[in-house]
Design a protein that fits this description.
Length: about 290
C-alpha cells in the first residue's frame, strides 16, 4: 500500500504542512500513522480525504462543517461546485485519486469525458498539465509507486497521440521543427504536447522521441534543412550531465536555433550558447510557439 509524507500531501493538495498539522489537532478527518521516530505517514485514503477537504474549503466550505461530512457527502458537495476553476480542480483531484487507487478505468473515463466536452488541447492545458505539475515532483523523487506513474502517464500519452493523429496534414513548405529528447530522458508527455501544438499550427514536425543520441541528431541535420531543434527535459536518468549536454548541442550546427523547455531547464544556471534559447514556463513556451 502506498504511503505519503506530510510534504507529499502539501505538494499534491496545495495545503501547507503547517495547516495540515493544525487540522489534525482540531478535527477528525485525518488520523495519520506515525513511525518509531514520530514521522507522520498517510495512506492513499487519507490523501483522497485531504484533496476533498482542500477543494471544498477553497470554494467556501468551513473546515468545521466539512469535518462533520461523510465521504459520500463530501463527494456530493464537490460535484455540486459550479465555478469553472472548481470544475477543473475537481477533475484533476479525481485523476489523482484514481491514480493512487490504481483505478485506471475511472482515470481514463475522467480524461475521455473532459476531451469530449472541451477538446484535447484544453484537456492538456487545463487538466493534464495541472495534474502533472502536482504529482510530477513526487514521480521524480520516487514518492509515488512506479506502477502508478507508468499507468497514468501511458494513458495520458495515448490521449495526446490520438489528438495528434486527428489533426490535419501539415502545410507544404512549412518550417521543419525536429523534436527530440536526450539520451536517458523518457518523460515525453511535454514533448508530445509541443508536437500537438506545432502540428495544429501547420508546422512540419520530425518527432524523434525519447533517448536520442546526439550523433543521430547531427546526422539528421546534415541531410535535411532543419529550422529548429526542440527538446523538453523533465527528469533524465541518474548520471545525466546538463553542462555536457549543452556543450554537445553546440557541436551539431550553430546556425540552427535550439529551444529547450521542461522542469529541468527551470533550474539550469549554467552557460548557454547564443543559438540556444531556454523557456522556463508554460506561458513563455506557448508565447514562443505562437510567434514562430
Amino acid at each position: 500500500m502506498s504511503s505519503y509524507t506530510i510534504k507529499d500531501l502539501e505538494q499534491i493538495s496545495g495545503i501547507k504542512a503547517h495547516t495540515i498539522r493544525i487540522w489534525e489537532q482540531r478535527y477528525q478527518f485525518l488520523q495519520p500513522q506515525r513511525t518509531e521516530t514520530n514521522i507522520r505517514s498517510y495512506t492513499a485514503d487519507e490523501l483522497k480525504v485531504i484533496l476533498n477537504v482542500s477543494l471544498l474549503n477553497k470554494y467556501g466550505f468551513k473546515i468545521s462543517h466539512i469535518d462533520k461530512m461523510s465521504a459520500a457527502e463530501m463527494e456530493d458537495k464537490i460535484l455540486g461546485l459550479s465555478q469553472l476553476d472548481a470544475e477543473k480542480e475537481r477533475v484533476v483531484n479525481a485523476l489523482i485519486k484514481d491514480m493512487v487507487s490504481l483505478d485506471m478505468l475511472a482515470f481514463e473515463r475522467q480524461l475521455d469525458t473532459y476531451i469530449a466536452q472541451k477538446g484535447i488541447e484544453k484537456t492538456i492545458t487545463e487538466i493534464i498539465f495541472s495534474f502533472l505539475e502536482r504529482v510530477g515532483v513526487l514521480w521524480i523523487t520516487n514518492h509515488i509507486n512506479p506502477a502508478q506513474e507508468h499507468l497514468a502517464s501511458n494513458l495520458i500519452r495515448q490521449k495526446v497521440i490520438l489528438g495528434i493523429e486527428k489533426l490535419p496534414k501539415m502545410f507544404p513548405n512549412a518550417k521543419l521543427i525536429v523534436l527530440f529528447m536526450p539520451e536517458g530522458e523518457y518523460h515525453e508527455i511535454g514533448l508530445l504536447f509541443v508536437h500537438f501544438l506545432l502540428k495544429s499550427k501547420g508546422y512540419n514536425v520530425d518527432y524523434l522521441g525519447t533517448n536520442v543520441p546526439l550523433v543521430d541528431l547531427k546526422y539528421l541535420t546534415e541531410y535535411k534543412k532543419v529550422d529548429y531543434l526542440y527538446s523538453h527535459i523533465t527528469a533524465p536518468i541518474k548520471g545525466f550531465k546538463m553542462n555536457k549536454f549543452m556543450e554537445q548541442l553546440t557541436q551539431i550546427n550553430s546556425k540552427i536555433p535550439v529551444v529547450l523547455t521542461g522542469q529541468m531547464m527551470q533550474e539550469y544556471k549554467g552557460p548557454v550558447a547564443s543559438h540556444i534559447r531556454i523557456m522556463q514556463s508554460l506561458s513563455e513556451t506557448m508565447q514562443f510557439l505562437s510567434s514562430l
